[in-house]
């Protein structure tokens, strides 16, 4: 129970990688506040699954790309549970297509959901963590944040921004005993990859040294490591979970 009694806020926490992280945190005894945007059915399923494990979990629906909402999410958690020990910035969207077809609207939406949301929630919680001289912030990046991906230029740029943000903020908050790290997943088995044809999946699998897609639970266990005392001297790092990709 590495996270027993720890209050954890996870954005985009009710499906995909976010759900995988939430379930692994629940196994370690965390108290969970899960943000989601619009999929009520997945949110209820995740809530029921975690509650059946005997863990406290609550949902907070809304758009973390909006600063005022993000502030409300943190304030709600502080009022209800008294503190925030761990913040996991996971909310993200993607768009597959040629850069020449991207629009200003595409840019604004992807950067707002993927990167501005990280600023919003982190900026809203950081004073609280500084006052307690304790905290762990985990940003979910992507292998494409470091390598870049054709036909996902805006997504890659948003994740690259998260990497730089993570490294810079970690230096700023280190003396306050607040650790800031990121996880850069490789190809993970989620609905986000459902668009690929079987032939494309096989070609991509052949490029992965471990010969398979990763699982959300594998990302979740990496997040548990970064949230727990096991990583007490680690900050400013981008942890690659990619099967050697």
Report the count of strand segments: 7
The description of the largest β-sheet is: 7 strands, parallel
At the first level of CATH, what is the class?
A: Alpha Beta
Give the ordered list of helices and strands: EHEHEHEHEHHEHHE
Description:
This protein is α/β, with parallel strands linked by helices. It has one domain: 3-Layer(aba) Sandwich (Rossmann fold), CATH 3.40.50. The protein has eight helices and seven strands. Strands 3-2-1-4-5-6-7 form a seven-stranded parallel β-sheet, sandwiched between helices. Strand 4, helix 4 and strand 5 (135-140) form a beta-alpha-beta unit. Helix 1 packs across helix 8, helix 3 (67-81) runs parallel beside helix 4 (104-132) and helix 4 (104-132) runs parallel beside helix 6 (153-173). The longest helix has 29 residues, at 104-132. GO terms for molecular function: oxidoreductase activity.
Helix and strand topology:
Layout: E1 7-10, H1 16-27, E2 31-36, H2 40-51, E3 57-61, H3 67-81, E4 86-89, H4 104-132, E5 135-140, H5 144-147, H6 153-173, E6 178-185, H7 198-206, H8 216-227, E7 238-241
Parallel strand pairs: 1-2, 1-4, 2-3, 4-5, 5-6, 6-7
Which features would summarize this protein structure in a list?
245 residues; alpha/beta; Rossmann fold; globular
Describe, in short, the structure shown.
This protein is an alpha/beta fold.
